[in-house]
Amino acid sequence: MSNHRNDVDSFAAQFKALSNPHRLALFRRLTSCCPPGTSCSTEDAVRYSVGQLGADIDISISTLSHHLKELKRAGLVQMARKGKQVECWVAPQTLEQLSAFFAELPAQPKDTRNKPMSEQNTCCGTSAVTDKSPSAADHDAYRQSVREKYSQVAKANNERQGCGGGTSCCGPTDDGAINTLISTRLGYSQADLDLVPSGADMGLGCGNPKAIAALKSSETVVDLGSGGGFDCFLAAREVGSSGRVIGVDMTPDMVSKARANALKGRYENVEFRLGEIEHLPIADVTADVIISNCVINLSPNKPQVFRDAFRVLKPDGRLAISDVVATVELPEEMRNDAGLIAGCTGNAALIDDLEAMMRETGFEQIRIQPKDESKEFIKDWAPGHNVTDYVVSATIEAVKPGGCGGGK
Q1: What is the largest CA-CA distance in the chain?
Q2: What is the predicted pLDDT for the residue at 124?
Q3: 224-261 burial string, b = 16+ CB within 10 Å, else e?
Q4: By CB neighbour count within 10 A (0-12 exposed, 13-18 middle, 19+ buried), where does 111 fall?
Q5: What is the pLDDT of residue 407?
Q6: C-alpha of 373 from chain center
Q7: What whole-number distance in Å separates Cα of residue 80 and Cα of residue 135?
Q8: Listed residue (206, 264, 274, 265) closest to 234, CA to CA
Q9: Alpha-carbon torsion 65, 66, 70, 71, what sign?
Q10: I need a surface site. Which of 89, 226, 277, 307 has the fewest CB within 10 A?
Q11: CATH of the domain at 84
Q12: d(CA 225, CA 92)
């Protein structure tokens, strides 16, 4: 190992980075393979766009970005912008250095039970090792945790009880006066609040998507994560009787509550459907506008949210979203806190990552505007956690280009 004595610190950093199962899975996926007896140049390295990696490995872009940066910091991955995309790859010389390091280690005893590397999963062979990247089952478990939390919110609101804890986007209180105060802080007017049925304003959200949606008469609007129907009912007033509003929520209790509110308010142009925002129960090319209020941050697969939104939108259709975004990388303890995740802060994506997701999907005219004033109410969502050091509410706008007729 004398030839590598000066590189001990570098190798130690690389092995530390690869000790995380997500990073190991990413490194394996990015690894370029050369036929035996040949040499590879950097140009031969297999390159992936960040969006493609997120879809292939089924990991959220915010988490993916964090792990790619750690791999890059350790010298294992290279990244570069190509046009509108960010590409990443493992340079062949990196693999050569690692191979040389292991080649100088003492040979394993002949009776070892470990399989040789040639029988393990690489990009050149079949899989004998299962990586630990988040699976569909992991995403389902994640959604179920969020679903249970918001089911409690709906039931508590029906029973005129608080959901516990302090003021937060998970449903702060059963007090209508407090909910009104919260909603006016989010950008709604008293006139907006007076228009909706009692109980529809649950004090949820982090902004007012209607304010940026520029809704027109006769348009079809889809609301991602419609909750008790508050934003849907406001949108229904804007599009008129010739328009249509479809709310989608994955929590049965929320859908039931919204439908009851629609009957109470006699909204004939509003309907609510049970479904996930990653897989909308809506036909292709249906919506003129998609709105959402503090919901996409909850998704474990945000790229899929934008892909399905793109599918559902008509050409020239618009996104008008209020959501929580990360201004800096979230610490691991925040990402792993179920309470912060359900409270709309623990799974927020970085602004650059959100823009990359939307651009990769095909959206244009992307505009993400953080609202620093939102820290005044976000700080109350998780007292003692200093979440405003990491997240802020933002408006997110984009347009599906005309004449496309579908997603990528």
Answers
A1: 80
A2: 36
A3: bbbbbbbbbbbbbbbbeeebbbbbbbbbebbbbbbbbb
A4: exposed
A5: 44
A6: 23
A7: 28
A8: 265
A9: negative
A10: 89
A11: 1.10.10.10
A12: 45
DSSP track, 72-138: HHTTS-EEEEETTEEEEE--HHHHHHHHHHHHTSPPPPTT--SPPGGGS--TTS---S---S--HHH
Residues in the chain: 408
Total number of domains constituting the chain: 2
Amino acid identity for residue 191 in this structure:
A
Looking only at the bridges linking them, the beta strands covering 270-274 and 244-249 are parallel
Does one domain contain both 64 and 204?
A: no
CATH number for the domain spanning 360: value is 3.40.50.150
Whether residue 132 is contained in a domain is answered as no
Q: Which domain holds residue 75?
A: 2-108+115-126
Please state, in angstroms and rounded to a whole number, the distance separating the CA atoms of residues 287 and 223. Answer: 10
Q: Give the model's pLDDT for residue 134.
A: 54
Tell which residue, 344, 281, 279, 335, has the closest CA to residue 305: 279
**Three-state SS at 171:** coil
Q: How far is CA 245 from the centre of its chain?
A: 24
| Same domain? 305 vs 364 | yes
135 in any annotated domain? no
Together in a domain, 249 and 371: yes
Determine the Cα–Cα distance for residues 232 and 245; give it in Å rounded to an integer: 6
217 plus 343 within the same structural domain:
yes
Average pLDDT along the chain, 408 residues, taken 10 residues at a time = 58 81 77 45 62 66 75 84 77 74 61 41 37 55 67 60 44 48 66 80 81 96 94 95 96 91 94 95 97 94 96 97 94 88 90 95 96 88 89 96 58
pLDDT at 174: 46
Final residue in a domain of this structure, among 65, 92, 126: 126
The CA distance from 314 to 12, in Å, is 51
Q: What's the confidence (pLDDT) of residue 172? A: 42
Q: Are residues 216 and 252 in the same domain?
A: yes
pLDDT at 37: 39
